[in-house]
Amino acid sequence: MTDDLIQTPATPFEEAELVRARQRSRAVVMAVLLGLFVVLVFAISIVKIQLGHAV
Amino acid sequence: MSTSAATVSLPADWRDFLALTKPRVMTLVVFTGLCGMLAAPAHIHPILGFTAILCIALGAGAAGALNQWYEADLDAKMKRTQKRPLPAGRMDRQSALHFGVGLACFSLVLMYFAINLAATLILAASILFYVFVYTIWLKRRTPQNIVIGGAAGAFPPMIGWAAATGDVSTMPVLLFALIFLWTPPHFWALALFVKTDYANAGVPMLPVVAGERTTRIQIGLYTIPMILCAAAPWPLGFTGAIYGITAAVMSGLFLAMAVQVAIRRTGPDDDMAPEKRLFKFSILYLFVVFGALVIDRWFA
């Protein structure tokens, strides 16, 4: 699919749209990963407090 | 080390970053790391255990990304690897480098703060070993590349063990030795049936440099200490009969296939079926032996 995107001749407008779509999908994935990271850090902190370790 | 073959005009897709981490290789790394952790004689909280395995996976992914960053030119020459993001022109090399370094640092910092120093140091050693010793130093220089470089892939059970116990004892060293000695027969079986690919790319794999005959003999020779290592934990008292019998049976099958490969002579149109079978079985072997280790520890 990505090969097709690269090889297909596109107008400047279409190319800008493709770039924006790619940036949007990367931003969504990054947001999800950051959200999961926050949850993980929270969970680690709770576990460490329960175990009596310094966080 | 040249830049990728095609011009990159679009930002790389997130799937290409995922592909940089070599997810298929990661499954074996994660599995052996998890088994090392579960076989350790210490309890680790499930959240911390999950975090430790996540760090091992991220560290392995980082090492894979840095490997692909450095080997973009080699990957472009081999059928097996030419569709990867860098040789296919879907990503620029700098993005791969930044991603690899960032992921490596992230995995180490998380491992240190969430788990312990011992696991962090071994994880750091495995990433550095894979990138600098195997990828940059050995791979293009010597047919012993995968023998010495195999150490990088042998660290995960030791990291898992260290994450649970905070230190390293004889048993994780045996697990390290098992994967270290398993790597040459595994990779040389592969190298025998993709020899032309490696030769075209100029990678001095043993079949390319020393020939098929030597490679076959070496596969047989490395299998002997490997099966001794696999069998050792039972007589040494580290495991029970479940592991001991499973390891003995699987090692016997491995030895039979390795001997068949070792004594074989091939013609020009040979389909390399025994070599392909040994390669596939070697993956199953590691999964079953490490799985038996965990079953033995928890259910025996």
UniProtKB/TrEMBL annotation, chain A:
Alphabetical UniProt keywords: Membrane, Transmembrane, Transmembrane helix
Membrane-spanning ranges: 27-47
Source superkingdom: Bacteria
Protein name: Phosphoribosylpyrophosphate synthetase
Organism: Sphingomonas kyeonggiensis
UniProtKB/TrEMBL annotation, chain B:
Other remarks in the entry: Carbon 2 of the heme B porphyrin ring is defined according to the Fischer nomenclature.
PANTHER family to which the protein is assigned, alphabetical: 4-HYDROXYBENZOATE SOLANESYLTRANSFERASE, PROTOHEME IX FARNESYLTRANSFERASE, MITOCHONDRIAL
Record PROSITE patterns: UBIA
Enzyme class: transferase
Keyword annotations: Cell membrane, Heme biosynthesis, Membrane, Transferase, Transmembrane, Transmembrane helix
GO annotation, cellular component aspect: plasma membrane
Source organism per UniProt: Sphingomonas kyeonggiensis
The enzyme's E.C. designation: 2.5.1.141
Principal location class: membrane
Protein name, entry field: Protoheme IX farnesyltransferase
One Pfam family here: UbiA
Function description: Converts heme B (protoheme IX) to heme O by substitution of the vinyl group on carbon 2 of heme B porphyrin ring with a hydroxyethyl farnesyl side group.
Membrane topology reported for the UniProt record: Multi-pass membrane protein
Reactions the enzyme catalyzes: heme b + (2E,6E)-farnesyl diphosphate + H2O = Fe(II)-heme o + diphosphate
Biological pathway: Porphyrin-containing compound metabolism; heme O biosynthesis; heme O from protoheme: step 1/1
Taxonomy, superkingdom: Bacteria
This protein's encoding gene: ctaB
Localisation: Cell membrane
Entry's family note: Belongs to the UbiA prenyltransferase family. Protoheme IX farnesyltransferase subfamily.
Gene Ontology terms, MF aspect: protoheme IX farnesyltransferase activity
BP terms from Gene Ontology: heme O biosynthetic process
Transmembrane segments: 25-44, 50-70, 96-115, 121-138, 145-164, 170-194, 215-234, 240-263, 283-299
